[in-house]
Amino acid sequence: MSVGQYDDSNRAFLQAFMARGTLTFKEARPLLAAIFSVKDGETVRPDEVTMADFDSYVHAASAALSPFDYEIRSTLHQVSKERIWALVNSTSDALTQIATVRTADEIAFIKRVLDAMFETYNTERQEVMAITSMQAMKVAKADERRRQSNGEGEENQSADKGLTHSQAEKLMLSLVEEGWFERSGEGWFTLSPRALMELKSWLVATYNDPDAEAGEWQHIKNCEACKGIVTIGQRCSEVSCTVRLHEGCLGPFWRTRREEKCPKCKTPWKGLWVGEKAVTTTEAYNRGRRISGGANRRPAQAEEEEEEEEEGGGENGAEEDEEADDN
User: Fold this and answer.
1) Burial of 294 (0-12, 13-18, 19+ CB in 10 A)
2) What are phi and psi of 198, to 5 degrees?
3) 10 occurs within a structural domain
4) Is residue 191 within a helix (H) or strand (E), and if so which, with residue range?
5) Domain containing residue 25
6) Alpha-carbon distance 234 to 249, whole Å?
7) Which among 15, 44, 68 is the end of a domain?
8) Does residue 321 contact residue 126 with C-beta atoms inside 8 Å?
């Protein structure tokens, strides 16, 4: 579609897209059907809208946004495997955009949440990259011990007052509504496809070691098949191996190979999980659910596990926190 063909129907589509932030073809069909009905003066059914129609309007919208440093990108949802199109700022990351409507304390909290996702609960042995509400509440306030160990002065310490639990919970839900986070049926928060597209470069720069040797474990890893960031999927069972696959990429990937072995280290592929299932499929997690009956856990037991997590941190922290949070 040329610039000269850009009309009110394109503007209506772009406005609707901007209001949503993301679109799937399924969501776009009734939207375009309504636009076409007005444009053509006759009723157009959603099932009459084709993928070619959608592509045409997406390309036109992306071209119109280009002078303003925005573009439309697409990715496959890591769980539903549905393709999602999103408006992405091509010159700044998502944190910059979030910062324009957040207080300094809220921005600091969001960064602590990301640190929890991609450092605390993302270790070589257990790559969760997701947090529960309880884990989010634990970083509502800045960690005094960490700030003091980092040598931060009193001025910086007093500047970050943190958030109350109610403020932190409200902000987490707001970030879900705005499309930056997603919340699973089990209550785990993860970065949304839109956030992953916008934050990809920032995540790599922030959490990966630029001096690491080739093949060395890093916090942010890409799918062996599609090369997109993997925060939900499967991993090689060899701990030191960095091969990861999105669940939706597994079928096509293995169909091109004679046997299901890691393409790098040749270890038989056992389907170990990346994401919340790295916790929820463990015996420790399910044992906790059986003991508590899925509800009302003994306070003393929960407190003991919380203390162990704070002292031990890292690899087992996600399991222990989630056992307490789930109940």
Assistant:
1) exposed
2) -75, -35
3) yes
4) strand 189-191
5) 3-68
6) 10
7) 68
8) no
pLDDT of residue 311: 41
Number of domains in the chain: 3
Beta strands 233-235; 244-245: pairing state: antiparallel
User: Is 298 found in the same domain as 260?
Assistant: no
Q: Is 84 helix (H, G, I), strand (E, B) or coil?
A: strand
pLDDT at 304: 38
Would residue 216 count as lying in a domain?
yes
What are 16's two structure tokens? 């609707």
Q: What is the pTM of this model?
A: 0.80
What residue type is assigned to position 124 of the chain? E
In DSSP terms, 71 is beta-bridged to: 88
- What CATH number should be reported for the domain holding residue 159? 1.10.10.10
For 169-207, what is each residue's pLDDT tens digit?
Answer: 999 999 999 999 999 999 999 999 999 998 988 999 999
Tell me, yes or no, whether 87 lies in a domain: no
Task: Give the helix/strand (H/E) hosting 199.
Answer: helix 193-207
**Partners of 229 in the beta sheet?**
222
- 261 exposure class (CB count in 10 Å sphere: 0-12, 13-18, 19+): middle
The pLDDT tens digits for 269-283 are 999 999 999 999 998
Q: Which tokens hold the place of 7? A: 């009309």
Query: Are 136 and 247 within one domain?
Result: yes
